[in-house]
Description:
It is a single chain. α10 (359-372) crosses α11. By secondary structure, the protein is α/β, with parallel strands linked by helices. The protein has three domains: 4-159, Rossmann fold, CATH 3.40.50.300; 181-353, 3-Layer(aba) Sandwich (Rossmann fold), CATH 3.40.50.300; 359-437, K homology (KH) domain (GMP Synthetase, Chain A, domain 3), CATH 3.30.300.20. Helices cover 32% and strands 21% of the residues.
Amino acid sequence: MLPVIALVGRPNVGKSTLFNRLTRSRDAIVADFAGLTRDRQYGQGRVGPRPYLVIDTGGFEPIRTEGIVKAMANQAELAIEECDAVIFVCDARAGLTPQDSRIADFLRRCGRKVILCVNKAEGLSDIAKAEFYELGLGEPLLISAAHGQGVRDAVEAALADFPEEEGDEEEVLDENAPRAIKVTVAGRPNAGKSTLINALLGEERLIAYDMPGTTRDAIKVDFEYGGRPYELVDTAGLRRKGKVFEAVEKFSVVKTLQAIQDANVVILVIDAKNGVAESDAHIAGYVLETGRALVVAVNKWDLLDSYERERAALDLEQKLHFLRWARMIRISALKRNGLNHLMRAVDEAHAAAYAKIPTPKLTRALLEAVQRQQPPRARGGRPKPRYAHQGGSNPPVIVVHGNALEDIGESYRRYLEAFFREKFNLAGTPLRIEFRTKDNPYVKEEKH
């Protein structure tokens, strides 16, 4: 078992900067705003040959408060329960605060090893840590997460009581074991993305709060469903560009788009009560542009009466008409209704996105399609598709070879796409068809 280190402290002391330093990543959003991180963020770090897990948390306030601050405190407390050691981060520039003292009181009672780190100490002398002795947590360590100063010493101190297990480095992964499917959950703010992930996990892993914009980072969670491994990524809600006011939210948009790009399957969560918004169509368009497999989860379906359900179905058909290839699953994340159907659709979309179709089967299907309906004539002749092969996956690419294929129009391309989808069960994934015309060896190049 890898040792686990939790990063705890009040808002804006540099926990996410330290997380990125320890994991050698940019997974956590970092900006000069208090309260930027809200959910727990997990990553893997390494000091020398030794690996460990690290948990980033939001600003911690041990006193029972209300609203989003209380939810953030709950996330920090869960991280402390999960960890083997806590790195308590304070701010050398701001000095010791009453909130630091309240956190220290809580940590003394938690039963975990605590390493007190005074961050943002670049260029400061040991005098900067003098006032932090009164927290009663041992020797404060001056560090700079932004510059790496003292960070290795802090991690080694946190891991000192956890001897390295022999053979960890030589562990060999089973090549035949199923790989985790990367599933990104996207949608506009307050559509129920975090509630859906919590419902799938069966625990309050992410903050789910009735306020748009609760999630700001892209949070990764590993879990199993039906015996199959998945990596779920909860993302910040995307809204129209004109409504992206905060610089923080602009960071979140970048993280969301990156998460969609890295996904195997995207779950687009639609709020059935409020209908399909313009931002929903924008997200769907980006998923289509990147070629990712897609499942549409129509959430809060249980809140609609029969008339509202008819209107919602019509709204989905009209505004997401370009996603007819995607499965649309009616769910209630809060009541855990429809989750089995949703995950089955995710599996089907993933299988379609990575389907391997032999060239002989593709060619026979192409010739059958042409026999049913030939391409329209153009420029006095008729294009002649000859054979097809697969040119890629995620999304599947079918390359069609023949003569005069540059004259094939968009309507015939759509016909072939629909034919191949039905023939090879490619629902849930975009499908791209490329036409390549065979050069005519009897046409001589013009002499200049």
